[in-house]
Amino acid sequence: MPQLDRIIVLSQIFWLVLIFSIFYAILTHYFLPKFLKSLKIRKQVIDINTKEILKKTERTLNKQGLLIKILVKNLEITSDLLVSYFGQLIKDKKGVDTLIIDQKISFVILNTIKFCDFKLLNSIFVYPKSLKFKD
Q1: What gap in Å lies between CA 22 and CA 30, rounded to an integer?
Q2: Residue 28: in which H helix or E strand, if any?
Q3: Which residues form the ATP synthase YMF19-like N-terminal domain (predicted)?
Q4: Do 97 and 103 form a contact (C-beta atoms < 8 A)?
C-alpha cells in the first residue's frame, strides 16, 4: 500500500509541521495582537460607559432626594398654615361652612392634575404647523 510508505509519510509530516508552524507564527504575530487590542478597547469603552451611567444615576438620585426633602418641608409648612388658618377661622366663626373651601381646593387639585402633570405634558409632541403638512 503506497499510503504507508515511509518515504511519503515523512515528507507529509515535514510539510504539515512546517506549514502549521508558519501559520501559527503569522496568527500569533499579526492577528492575535489586533484581536486582543480590540477586546481591550471594547472593555474600556464598556467600563467608561458604566462609570458615566453610575455617576448620572447617583446625581439623579441625589436630586430626587433633595426634591423630596423640599416637597416634604413645603407640605409641612402648608399643612401647618392650613391648620392654623382653619383653626383660627373656626374659633372666630363657630358656624363655618367649609363646603365652599372644599370645592375650591378640589378645583385646584383637579386643574393641577389636568394641566400640570409633567409626565403627561412631556409625552405630548408638539410640532409647528409647517412640519405637519410636509410629507
Answers
A1: 12
A2: none
A3: 2-67
A4: no
